[in-house]
Amino acid sequence: MARLKGPEIKKALTRLPGWKRAGATISRTYAFADFPAAIRFVNQVASLAEQAWHHPDIEIRWNRVTLTLTTHDEGGLTPKDFRLARKFDRA
Questions:
Q1: What angle do CA 65, 66, 72 make, to 5 degrees?
Q2: In order of start, what are the domains of the chain with their CATH numbers?
Q3: How far is residue 30's CA from residue 49's CA, in Å, rounded to a whole number?
Q4: What does the pLDDT look like over 39-90, one tens digit per residue?
Q5: C-alpha angle with apex 88: 6 to 76, nearest 5 degrees?
Q6: Is 63 in contact with 31 (CB distance < 8 Å)?
Q7: Global pTM?
Q8: DSSP assignment string, 1-61
Q9: Residue 77: which residues within 8 A CB-CB, separation 6 or more?
Q10: Cα atoms in the 13 Å half-sphere on the side-chain side of 1
Q11: Residue 78 and residue 91: Cα distance in Å, rounded?
Q12: CA 23, CA 53: separation in Å to the nearest integer?
């Protein structure tokens, strides 16, 4: 899958409120009522990531979960990252 260029990334981010680019990654932090709710979300993310065979970096801090995506084998962002980000937002 081809790596996206700057203008393509910028356009794709307009359709993903809350996601931010940092170099070759995009990330978003989700807030939940408590730790168990955050873990339930992480379990949903894990299932979606396995189905897509594309895995985010996950950081858990009590009721906050930060997901970071990039396509490592392409050395940057691809459409795969943005498709999965949309799935995570729907979870």
A1: 135
A2: 6-90 (3.30.1360.20)
A3: 17
A4: 999 999 999 999 999 999 999 999 999 999 999 988 899 999 999 999 999 9
A5: 30
A6: yes
A7: 0.94
A8: -PPPPHHHHHHHHHTSTT-EEETTEEEEEEE-SSHHHHHHHHHHHHHHHHHHT---EEEEE
A9: 3, 4, 9, 21, 24, 25, 26, 69, 70, 71
A10: 15
A11: 21
A12: 22
Task: Enter the tokens of residue 57.
Answer: 């970096």
Burial class (CB in 10 A: 0-12, 13-18, 19+), 81: buried
Which tokens go with 67?
């997901």
Alpha carbon 66 to chain centroid, angstroms:
8
Classified as helix, coil or strand, 65 is strand
